[in-house]
Amino acid sequence: MPPSRRVRALIDGLSWAEKLGQLQIVFRPSLHEAKQLVRGGIGSVFWPRSSAAVNALQRVAVEETRLGIPVLVGLDVVHGHRTTAPIPLAQAATFDRDLVRELARLAAAEARSAGVTWTFSPMIDVSRDPRWGRVAEGFGEDVYITAEMGRAMVRGYHGEELAASDAIAATAKHFVAYGQPEGGRDYNTADASEHRLRNVHLEPFRAAVETGAAAVMASFNTVDGRPMHANRRLLTDVLKSEWGFDGIVVGDADGVRNLIPHRVAADLADAVRLAYGAGLDVEMGGAPSDLNPSELAPDRLDPARLDDAVGRVLALKEALGLFDDPYVPEADERTEPTHEARRLVRTAAARSAVLLKNDGTLPLRRPRRVLVTGPYAESADHLGAWTQSFAAPAGSIADELGERMPQAELRVAPGVRFLDDDASGIPLVVAAAREADIVLVFAGEPSSLTGEAASRSDLRLPGRQEELIRAIAGTGTPFVVVLETGRPLVVADWIDRAPAVIVAWHGGTEAAAAIVDILLGDAEPSGRLPMSFPRSSAQVPIHYAHELTGRPATVGGTLDETSVDIGLHGPDNVHEKYTSKYLDLELGPQFAFGHGSGYATFVHGAPRISADTVRLETLEAGAHVVVEVEVTNTSSRPGDEVVQAYLEDVVASVAPPVRRLVAFERRTVEPGATVTVSFELGTAELGFWSTDSAPARFVVEPGLFRIHIGSRLERTQAVELVVR
Ligand code: BGC
Questions:
Q1: Cα 100 to averaged position of ligand 1 atoms, centre (Å)
Q2: Is-catalytic flag, 237?
Q3: Where are the beta strands (DSSP E) in 86-149?
Q4: Among the atoms of ligand 1, which is closest to the Cα of residue 121?
């Protein structure tokens, strides 16, 4: 879009130094420092912690700078501002786009009331590697879910229009392939083929751009040997030229400075010139200001490129309505969660919880003697990776249980702590477990082990928690394990002995209440895994949408793709030696993507398809085939089913994934009722990016497709479709 008249006039009126000022954001300085920066012409600042401080900065920008341009106020509003929602990985587990959009709306309303106008969220890095701590901030291993949830968040943040008093500008991050760091180590090299880039890592960004995301953040990693902050091909050729992205490309914190240790820039001036030249619009960290102005003079930076970048920044300020009114009403700042906000995040936390297994121990049936143990029993560490220091605190599960189970005798004994090696509390827990009717074990990893710079090489429960669980199992008393985590964990050493296990993630402000809702059966644990739980840390990266290889492991001598796909069989059943497997580990993950059940039970009818043959031209003209399935709630309680549709492209010009999710829907079904769930499949679902020629082309190849529909990967029924 060409700049508006107002923006054009401002660009023309700005000096070279003022233009460079517009193209920077500086990291969390004090209010005093921020005022100095704004006086000096900086275009964006981090949120100075209150609406009053924002207004003070805007006043400096408007009244004390030559052209009076207001500042953008940025902040990582990732899963909440004052009210904290479940972490994004948990939000993906809800398989509920509307809910994710609502959570982003809530975060936007709270943040904008405080003067924030720009968030660095959503994170839409597809990742198949749970060693990487940042999987907590994204939507898991699947391309389609990540794209869908990314769209939902962008819509939630942006609302009806950016100028509204409850909207903030979204940033899709981190562009691109940051979720595939070698060895799972944060910031590490990502080397991805064009095929994988197009079909996996770029796809959610394409969706976010299509949805209108205001900004895209460059990632720290290299792709093709080029650090993304200097990757002209991806930032400019693909993102801006091919996709027509007209928003802001913002750098990550000191990502431009980092071009020096990456060894593609000789010094800071070189780094800054490389980055702006590659298509970066806003540098994060203040590198340009640290340079002698002559280093960035007009003969050393392309003036047209600079004007383009400035135009993008000013256009966002205009869309946010800042030129008309840069101030926020201070009396309206929302500093505490409202009752509705608490209710929403509580619902979200319950909806995100995944019931990994249950032998009928859950929901609890009014037990009398209850032992509450594990490091999460008395902890309030439920907020997760992007905890804002100013966020409303969460409560503890022990306190919540105390209030909600007045009839029970509750005994609380955590037994072990998260990280230390002290197991001396375990015997006491064992003795207490012998006296109890039920043991509730609240285990997991603390928030500090998740998020940025929090890669782990061992995905088992940290500290002595596994020992605690095995000791409890040894008592014979029934028990339930609730796992709070920011990533898939390896649970192989104890899961078979646990009667019931729930993954509650880091559930936010109302996590404790939501967990108790689930334990007591007041809410359904109806989430589904957005990322596979591996059997062993040595098995990652692992994901369901893998290619079959030329030598898939065979089961009993016959190729059984479904079993191969999801690993229902152990090495004993796999007879062929020269096949793709580990000699010492069962095939497939412990729990596959999409796994999870609830207290209600469902039966699916046979799926139907509106046509078994369709012509390619008909699809390309916009037609769809419709696949339908009837779902019956066979239990006596209302419940939510997540119907998942996976595509299998039987023969293609490139090795296709064994299955890939192309549609899903979450539906609440009353006891005994039957609902029909239908999905439309067209070119977007049947096609893929072909990289045979540059630029890549989106193609649907004629041939046979199977559409597998069901409640999880290993429980699907298929219909066939021929594209001619
Ligand atoms: C992270 C980004 C974040 C930025 C600003 C960086 O370290 O990688 O995701 O938006 O900091 O806080």
A1: 21
A2: no
A3: 118-119
A4: 10
